[in-house]
Every structure is written in structure tokens, then in C-alpha cells.
Amino acid sequence: MNQPLLEVENLRFRFRGQEQDVVQDVSFRLGRNETLCIVGESGCGKSVTALALMGLLPQDSVQFGAGRIRFDGETFAPGDHDRIAKMRGDRMAMIFQEPMTSLNPAFRIGDQIAEAVERHRNCGHAAARARALEMLGKVGIPAPEQRFDAYPHQLSGGMRQRVMIAMALANDPELLIADEPTTALDVTVQAQILELIAELQAETGMGTIMITHDLGVVAEIATNVAVMYAGQVVEYGSARSIFENPQHPYTIGLMASVPSLTGPRRRLSTVPGVVPAIGQMPEGCRFSSRCPFAAPVCAARPDLAEQDPGHRVACHFAPLEQTLERSA
Amino acid sequence: MLSFVARRIVIAIPTVILISIFVFGLQKLLPGDPILAMAGEERDPETIAFLREKYRMNDPVWVQYATWIKGVVTGNLGISLRTNQPVTELIAQKLPVTIQLALMALVFALVIGIPAGILSAVKKGTITDYVANVVALSGLSIPNFWLGIMLILLVAVKWQALPASGYVPPGEDLWLSLKTMLMPAFVLGTALAATLMRHTRSAMLGVLKSDYVRTARAKGLAERRVILRHAFRNALTPIVTLTALLFGELIAGAVLTEQIFTIPGFGKLVVDAVFNRDYAVVQGIVLVTAMGFIVMNILADAAYFVLNPRLRKQ
Question: Which residue intervals define the domain ABC transporter in the entry (chain A) (predicted)?
Fold first, then answer.
């Protein structure tokens, strides 16, 4: 197997002044041309994980634990801001959830893209402009020459997200992190944006981390899936194995909460309760406070252990069905 | 842009009319009769009657207002009851002095206040932030007259580095003019610098949390560029408004500073006119000051137009 583009091992950090880690021992790997989906409900640590990888968390308020990141063969610590800063916007790029507010309202969109190019390519303004125009065309903005001079408020949300994508991909990054890029958009536009990212990925071979809580999106684009709960990865594996054979009670709960178009109509299933706040997380398995199968053993933290090749689950009862049958 | 400014000017017209009525009404309501003051000790009824006729005090109020406003429109603000000089001439003499003082004070305020505000926002919660805040608070709480006197004692008397008081027109000797105005401008500017610093700080704190600043960082831009270009540009709007209002305040509020440094400016004119019940002068001054505020506001609006693309035609 060839070397993966990105390997994250035991990423762990907390915000200064807090008792518990926000993100605990998160590990995953991502190959070129692959898409890793990080799923979980709001507050599960998906976005902060991404921001930490990009070095975008406020440096003085975050304390990193051990853990390491290997990016394209280079290994460094997650808190190595200087190292990450050199790659940010160049070899790794990010797009965000809020296209309406993520562009600077005071500057022309073309200049905002060109700025990213100029910064990393040491090229003149004319070359940067040419590249920005090329990118605007690539992301499907009609009449790039005219749109170059537009201000963000003159564009729709979908168009703005296209501009964000153009900006992120202007320097041909090897890694793209997309933090819920379609959440704020209309359903029809959502599909267009996902398709656009997929197309550009096929063209450049970049690895993509897609953060989402939309399992429909996951089913469509994921190569691998990491299910996060309360700052921990509770289940990790290929999209196929996660969808066909979910093992963690939380993953099963998430799957069950997706409304079905076929079969009898019934109340939507939900996972009861909410994610506990930092400082009130149960010791051991953080899902135990909401888990229907919780037992005394859950006070000890389960390892993210391999169930099947490539499919890891952090649950004492995994494989769940067999364990339950045995105990019945 | 032009139509935008034109619209602002049209909107300002009712305000100006209202102000003129207010200014005119104010002097009618003020206690004391200027005619009695002019007639002298004897209060000779004939003289009083003559003066009333001369200053058209016997006309109905609205006729008096109409006469006055007609003069105002043609640049005639009346004649000082005390010095017999035209009010327009008096104002034209004194206003440039105060404008020079206000401009120089504003330069001090901007040069100190804005960088200090940016710095304390960026370094929020650190020693730098606290020091900047303490200095700003001192700037706000130290009275101008005290700081002025202390500076005169130290800089002018002890070091003999700058002239202690007076005024030299810039046309006469630019260098000496600037030197003479330096201390008063500094005294006037420091208090404003504190206000500007606080506002810059809070505007920057708001903007630094915004999504587009995060985007700028995600692009890999240097932190300096993120702050000075992406953040500061968007924090400018409230700063521009404040600066425009502060400038108006400077013109009206330079009274104390002008007294301390014996600068023959607008402030001194106001004080003298009020003490002498020189109504024509008071009226003229209030009117000109109010107009100044309106002009500054229109300029601030025009500046928004440049700063905020969302205001421009879509």
C-alpha cells in the first residue's frame, strides 16, 4: 500500500483552564484522492479537530497533548504552528460552513483569490490575477472576467461557496478540509457544490476531509468514515463497513435517526439526551451516559479496536449483536 | 457616489432650518435685554426707542427671523453688539485658528489612539492590553487644563523647548506656527486618543472574531496582513464616524485649551460673546458650529461609501 497523504495519530488537546480534553486521541489516515468523512452531532469536536489540523485555533488558549501528524511523509507535532503555518493555504486548504460571512465584505472576490496565490507562489499580480480568473472558471462561476470585480454581497450563497472553493484550491493543495460546506445552502445547491468538490478532487488527486452531520452526504462521497462523539472517534472504517455493519451504539443510533422514504411511517428515532459539556464528560466511555447498553465496565475507556480488517470500534460490547446474543 | 452625497445634503436641509429656528429662538428666551445693556446707565427712553427701531426689535418675531435668515443666507450674520464688527468677519478670523488646532489635535489622537487600539485588541488580556487601557483611562481622566499647565511648566518654562502660549498664523511662519500649536494640540489630542483607542479596540475585537478573518488566516496570510488589511479595514466604519464627531467636538470644545495657551481662537470668541451677551456673535457661532457638525457627518457618510462596498449601487 502506498504511503497515505495524511496520518493523524492520537490528536489530543484541551482549551486552557478546562479540566477535560476537547478532543481525545483522534486518529485517522487519508490517502490521495480519498475522502474521509468525519460525522457526529453538533459539539462532538469535528470542527475543532479540523481547525487544529489547520493550526487555526488560537495558539495561546490551546494545550496539545502528545500525538503526531504525518503529512506527505513529514512528521510533526500538532502544536507546531510554524510548520503548519507554512503549509496553510498552500498545501492544505480549508473551506467553511458559512459562505455568507466567510468572504471579506470590503474586497473584490477576485482580489481575495489572487491574494492567496500571490502569497504562496511568489508571482506577480498579473499572474495571480490570471490564476484567480482560471479558478473562477473552474468552479463554475459564469463570466469570470466580470465577476472578478464583484463584491461578496453581490453573489448568492452558492456562488460565494464556489468562490471559497476557488480560493482554497487556487494553490493546488494536496489536502482540502471542508467543514460542513453545504449546511447553509439550499438542497439543490448542496448537490452542485458536492459534485464540484468531487470533480476537482478527481482532477487534482487531493485528499479531502469532509466534516458533516448529513449521513446522506457521507453515503455518497466517503471513502472512509470516522464517527466522532464528544471528542473521541468511536468508530472508524470504510464507508461500506460503517453503513452495512455499524457496531458502536452511537453509530447505530445515528443511522436510525435518518428518516426513511420507504417502509411504514413512524416517529423519527433519536439518540436521547445531548452531548455532555466539557468538564461533565463521564470518565471512560464518554457515550456511556446516553448509551442504552451502558454497564459498569464502561467506566473504563474502551480502545478503538479492530473488529474486521480496517473497521475499528471503541466499545466494550463490540461486536454488539453477538455480545448481546451471548449474554441473553 | 455624487447622488448619494446629494441625497445626504438634501436630508440635512430640514435639520439646518430647525437649527436656525432654535438658534434664533434661544436668544429670544435668554434672560437680559441687549438694548438695555447698550443704552448705558441712563436708560434714556428715547435712546432705547431709537435702538429698538435700529435693530428692528419692534417687528413681529417672524419678521425678525426672516430678516435674520435672509442675512445668514447672504453671509451676513449681523454685527457684534460689542465691537461693531461684522460677525462673519469675526468668525472668519477666529475659525481658522481653531481648525488648525483641531486638525493637529486630531493627528495626535489618530496616531496614538488607533495603533494603541489595534494593539490592545490583538494582545487582548495581556500586559500590553492592560497598559494601553490604563494609559487610555489616564488620558480620559486627566483634565486638559491640568495637563496643559504641567506641560507649560515642564516644556516651556523648565526646558524652554516650545513657546508657552500665543498663536502664529501658518502663513506668517509655518514652522513657528506648528511649534506654538504643538503643546495645545497634544493636550487636546490625548483625551481624544483615549476615546479613539477604546473604540478602535472594541471594533477590532468584534472584527477579529469574524469568519472572514479566519478565512484570511486559512489562506496562510501573515498575521500582520490579516490584522491590518482584512480586520482593520472592516473596523474602520465606526472609527470614521467617531473621528468626524470628535472633530466637531474639538472645534466647540477647545475653549479651555485655548484659554490656557491664550490662543485667540473660536473658543475664546464664544466665551467672550456669552459673557457680554453679544447675541449676534453667539447666534453666528452656534449656527456655524452646527453646520460644521452637519458637514462632518456628510463627510463621514461619504467615507462609508468608500469603505463599504455594500452601500454602492448594486
Answer: 6-255
Q: What distance in Å separates residue B123's CA from the closest CA in chain A?
A: 11
Per the confidence metrics, is the pTM higher than 0.80? yes
pLDDT recorded at residue A47: 92
Please write down the HEC assignment for all residues of A259-299: CCCCCCCCCCCCCCCCCCCCCCCCCCCCCCCCCCCCCHHHH
Please tell me the distance from the alpha carbon of residue B189 to that of residue B105, in angstroms, as a whole number: 4
Put simply, the answer to whether A102 touches B309 (Cβ < 8 Å) is: no
The ipTM of this complex is 0.89
Answer whether residue B144 is part of any domain: yes
Q: Indicate whether A203 and A254 sit together in one domain.
A: no
pLDDT of residue A268: 67
Mean pLDDT in residue range A184-199: 90
**C-beta atoms of B217 and A151 within 8 A:** no
Q: Where are the alpha helices (DSSP H) in chain A?
A: 46-53, 81-87, 99-102, 109-121, 125-138, 144-147, 157-169, 187-204, 215-221, 239-244, 249-256, 320-327
Going by C-alpha positions, the residue among A258, A257, A260 that lies closest to residue A270 is A257
More confident residue, A323 or B160: B160
The residues on A that touch B, with CB distances below 8 Å, are: 54, 56, 85-90, 93-94, 96, 98, 101-107, 115-116, 119-120, 151, 153-154, 164, 167-168
Report the percent of chain A where pLDDT is more than 90: 63
A11 shares its domain with A42: yes
Residues of A in contact with B215 (CB under 8 A): 96, 102-104, 164, 167
Chain B residues near any Cβ of chain A (below 8 Å) = 210-212, 214-221, 230, 233-234, 307-310, 314
Q: Is residue A208 included in any domain, yes or no? A: yes
* Residue A86's CATH number: 3.40.50.300
Task: Using an 8 Å CB-CB cutoff, list chain A residues near B206.
Answer: none
Domain interval for residue B203: 93-277+299-311
The CA dihedral of A291, A293, A295, A298, to the nearest 10 degrees, is -50
Half-sphere exposure of B60 (CA within 13 A, CB side): 3
CA distance A181 to chain B (A): 13
pLDDT band at A2 (very low <50, low <70, confident <90, very high): low
Summarize pLDDT for B269-311 with one digit per residue, the tens: 888 888 887 888 888 888 888 888 888 888 888 888 888 888 7
Structural domain boundaries enclosing A185: 6-222
* Domain shared by A58 and A113, yes or no: yes
Query: Does a structural domain hold residue B52?
Result: no
**pLDDT single digits (tens) B145-170:** 899 999 999 998 899 888 888 888 88
Q: Looking at the domain assignment, is residue A1 inside a domain?
A: no
* B84 inside domain: no
Res. A322 pLDDT band, cuts 50 70 90: confident
A205 domain residue, yes or no: yes
pLDDT tens, residue by residue, B17-26 = 898 888 888 7
Query: Nearest residue of A to residue B221 by CA position?
Result: A119
Number of domains observed in the structure of chain B: 1
Please provide residue A60's backbone torsions phi and psi, each rounded to the nearest 5 degrees. -80, -10
Pick the residue of B122, B123, B219 with the most A CBs within 10 A to test the interface with A by mutation.
B219
Tell me which residue of A109, A113, A116 sits closest to A150, measured CA to CA.
Answer: A109
Contact call for B220 and A88, based on CB within 8 A? yes
Contact between B211 and A88 using a beta-carbon 8 Å cutoff: no
User: Hey, are the CB atoms on A88 and B307 less than 8 Å from each other?
Assistant: no
Total domains in chain A come to 2
Q: For the domain that residue B195 is a member of, what is the CATH number?
A: 1.10.3720.10
How many residues are recorded in chain A? 328
Q: Are A94 and A47 in contact (CB under 8 A)?
A: no
> Are residues A96 and A178 both part of a single domain?
yes
Structural domain includes residue B146 = yes
Looking at the fold, whether A237 and A124 belong to one and the same domain comes out as: no
Q: Are residues A202 and A139 in the same domain?
A: yes
Whether residue A122 is found in the same domain as residue A140: yes
B314 pLDDT above the threshold of 50: no
Across the interface, whether the CB atoms of A88 and B217 are under 8 A apart is answered yes
Looking at the structure, do residues A216 and A281 belong to the same domain, yes or no?
no
